Amino acid sequence: MTFRARLLLGFGAVVLVPLTVFGLRIRAVMANRLTAEYQQRVAALVSVIRADLDRQSAGIALRLAALRDAIPRDNLFRTALQGGERTHLLDYAGDAMQLAGLSLLQIQDESGRIVSSGHFRNEYDRSDPALPRLLATAPAGTALVEARTAEAPFLALARVDSLRVGGRRFTLVGGIAVDSSFLARLAPDSELTVSVALPPDTSAGADPATQVVSAVTVPFVTSGDAARLLPAHIVVSHSLASLMALRRGVALSFLVAVLVTGLIALLLASWLSTRISRPLTALAAKTADVDMDRLDVAFDSDRSDEIGALSRLLGAMTERLRAGAARLREAERRLAMGDLARQVNHDIKNGLIPIRNVFRHLGQAADDSPDRLAAAFRDRQATVESSISYLENLASNYARLYPQPAGESCDVNAVVRETISRVSDTGQAELRLELAEGLRPARTDALVLRRILENLVGNALDSLAARAGHVTVSTAANGQGGVRITVADTGKGMTQDELNRAFDDFYTTKPGGTGLGLSIVRRLVLDANGALRVETEPGAGSAFIVELPGETW
Amino acid sequence: MIPRYRYVIPVALFAAACRAGAPRAELPLPPPAPAPGDTTCAIAAGRAAARDTVRLAVTDPVDPGHAPLPRNDAERLVFGQLYESLIRVDCQGRPLPGLAATWEQAPGDRWAFTLRDNARFWDGAPVTARDVLASWRSHDATLAASLTVTGDRTFTVAASDAPFQRLADQALAVTKPAPGGAWPIGTGRYWMTSGDPASPDALVAQPMARSGQPVVKIATGPAGGARDALDGGADVLITDDAATLDYARSATGYVDVPLEWSRTYVLLAPGREKSVIGDLRLESLREAVHGDARPAEWSGPGRFWFADLPSCGAQAGRDTLGASARRHRIVYNQSDRSAADLAARLVGLGVLGRGAVAAGVPASAFAASLRAGSDAAYVLELRRQVYDVCRAALELPPWSSAATIEPLLDVRSHAVVRRGIPRMTLDWDGTLRLAPP
Questions:
Q1: Whole-prediction pTM value?
Q2: Does the distance separating the beta carbons of B242 and A124 come in below 8 Å?
Q3: Residues A61-96 pLDDT 10s
Q4: In a domain? residue B380
Q5: Domain-located, residue B77
Q6: Among the four residues A84, A299, A385, B318, which has the most C-beta atoms within 10 Å?
Q7: What ipTM was estimated for this complex?
Q8: How many CB pairs under 8 A join A and B?
C-alpha cells in the first residue's frame, strides 16, 4: 500500500468514524424520543375513543328510549299491528331512524321477526332473534354489529331496548354506523389512524414495524346463522412514516456531511501526501540514478525537515561512494599498468634472452677460439635475426594499440561537428562552435582528428566540473596553409607546474584519469605533422591549440 | 295502494269498465272501417270548461331523444300529444283513425290506407305516402318494404301474421328529423316549442291549429316534488307515488284516476334455465314497493308477451359468459324507485343466496350492463301490453332468449286530474291524449 493510500485511509478513519458514530447516535436518540411521543399520543387517543364510545352508547340508549316512548303513542303503528295498512309499519323504522339520527334501526317482535327495518326496509319478515339477545349480553350493552342493507353490509355500534305495544313485546335494535367518517372523527390527527379489526382477524391489523399500535376491545356480534359475541378491536395506530421521513432526512444530511467531509479529507490528504511524497519520489529518482559510473548526482537540499536531512545524508553517502570509486579506479589503473609492464617485460625478455645467449656464445667463442668467431656468428645469426624479428613483431603489435594515422584530406569542420554532436549528447555543459567558413581541408586522418578532439573536449568539460561555464571549439586557417583548431574552456585552468607535467604519461589531476590522454594527443598531433600548444590561466580556463598541415591543392 | 276513498269511486267505476273490455295479448281482428267514436275511454272529472292552458306534471324524465317511442309514463303522455301513428287503438282495443283517415281491405291480401286531408308536419309540410315510407324505413325496414305507394296520400301495406293494431304502435309514428337534432318533427295536434321563459324547466306544446285547444305546459320534477306540483296548480299529475296520491285525495278539486296496469316488473337472470325466485310468494313483494302494485298476473288468454320470445325466431344462445364471471348482484336503474325496492326485497329474501347485493346504477350504465349480461340478475320494468311481441322483443338484450324472465309485480300510475279540465282519452297502451273540443 502506498504512503498516499495509507495517508488517505488514516484521514478517513480519523474523520469519518467519529462522524458516523455521531450520526447513528443522533438517529437512535431521535427515533426513541419520537416513538415514545407517538406512544403517548396513541395512548391518549385510545382513552378518548373509550370515552367517545361510552358517550355514543349513551346517546344511542337515549334515542332508543325516546323511540320506546314514541312508538306506543303512534296510532297508525298500533293499527298496522292489528292488521291495518302495513306500509306504514314497514316505513316506520326508516322515518324514525332518520328522525332519531341513527344509522341502524330494527324493530323485532317477540319471535325475532323483523317487523320494520330502517336501514333495510325490505328485509321485513326475516327472523334474527340472536341479534337483540347477544346485544343484551354484551358488556355495557353495546357492541359492534355487521348490519346489512340491500346494497352492502356496514358496521354499526348498536344497543338494544324493548317496549310493549298492545300486549306484545318488541325489541328495538338501534345504532350508528361505524364507517370511515366515524373513524375519521375519532382521529382528528392526520397522523393517527383508527381502524376496526373484526374477528377472526383479531390481530392489531397494523404492522408494528411501521406503526405504533394500540387497541380498544369492543364486543362484536357476528352475522349469520351461528351468531356469536366475539371481541373486536378498534385499532389506533400512529404511522411512523414521518419518523421514517425524518430518519431519511437525517440520513441524507448525514450522508451529505460524510461525503463533503470525505471530499475535504481526500483533498487535504492528497495535498499533504503530495507535499510529502513528491520530494521523496524525487529523492528516490535521484537515488535510482546513482551507480558506479554515475556518482555525480547532486543531493543538495535547502529543506530543514527530515527529507532535507535524508537528502543530505544521501549526498554525503554519494560523496563517499565517489571517493571510493576513484580509489578503486586508481587501483585498477595501477593494476592494469602493472600487468602491462609485466607483460612487456616478459615479452621483451623472451626476445632478449636468445640474443643474450648468442652474445655470450660469441663472447665465449671470441675468448676461446677467435678463429671460430665468424663461424659461430654465422651459426647463431639466424637466432639473432629471429629474436630481432620477434621484437619487431612485438613492437608492431604494441604499436597497434594506437591508430596509425593516414595522410589524407580531411574536412576539419565536419569532423568537429560530428565529434561535438556526440559529446554534446551527454549534456554536461554548454558547447559552442565557432567554425570558419570555407576552411580548406587538413591533411590528416579523420579518425586521428576525432580522437584528438574527443580527448581535448573531454578534458575541457572535465575542467568545468560542476561549475557553470562553457567550452568553445573553433576552427580557422592558420595563415600558413594549415588549419588551426582551438578547444577553449572556462574551467579551472592549470598552474605552471600542472602545465609542465600535463603531457607526461600517467600524469592526471582527475580522479579516475589514466594520465595518458594529453600525451596521446600530443603524439597523434606530432604523427600528423602538426603542432600542439596550450594557453592557460588558473581559475580562468585553458585553450588547447592544434595546428594541422593543410591539404596541398 | 288500492284506492278506497269516496273521491275515487266514479273514476274507479270507469276504470273497471275499461279493464273489463280492454284487449290483452291478442287483439281481435279489426273491422275494415274505423270504429265509431264514443266516450267509453274518455277521462273527465266534472264538466269540461274551456281553458287557454293545461298544465301537466310528470315525475319521470322526458328525453326528446326517445321520441316518438316512450320509455316511461311521462314520455307516453308527452309523446302522445306530439306524434301520430296511422291508427289509434282505444282502451277497448278498437282501431280509430289516426294519421290515416280511412283504410280498407285491398286485393292481394293488403290493406289500403288514405291519409287525412289536413295531415301536416309541424313545419307546415303536408304528409304524403312517401313521408310514411321514409319514416318507417328508419323504424321498421321490414314493414317499410311491404309498403307500396299508390298515390300522394294513398298506399297499401301487406297484411301479415302480426295484428292489424300494431300499426298503432308509437314506434311507427310518422316523423322526420328536425334540423337541430332536437325533437323529431311529428304530425300530432301539438308541436313542441322551445319552452317557456318564465319556467325553464317546463315544456310547452302549442296546438297546431287554432281549434280552441289549449296550450299544454308540461312540468317535470322528482317524485318527492309531486305534491308541490299540485300545490303549484298542475291540472294533471301522472304519478305512482303513494304519498302524493294520499295528498291528492285529500285535496279539493282533484280526482285520482288509476290508469291501466301498464307495466310489469320482471327479474331477468342471464344464463339460467331454472327459476330464480322459485316458490316465492309474489304477494310478499307487493309491500316492498311504494307505488300501486299487484303480484304480476296475466288475466287474459295466453301469457305474458315476453314468455313468447322463441316464437319470434330468437334462438337460445349458449351462455358464453358463465355464472362465475357475473357479478353477484341484482342490478337496477337507480332512477327507478320501484325497481330499487324490488331488488332490495329480493336481496332481503336471499333469492340469489348469501352475499348477493342490490346495485343501483345510472341509466346508461344499466343499459350497458344489461346489454352485456354481466350481472347475475336485473330488475326492470317492461310494457305489459305490446302491439307486436317481436318488435317489443327488440328492446330486450339479445341474450334474453337464453335467460329466465320472471314477472314480479304489475304496477300502474295514477292520473290526478283537476276537475273541469278538457276531456282526455285513454288508449289501449295507456297513452293519454287531450281530446279535441
A1: 0.62
A2: no
A3: 999 999 999 999 998 899 888 887 788 899 999 999
A4: yes
A5: yes
A6: A299
A7: 0.71
A8: 38
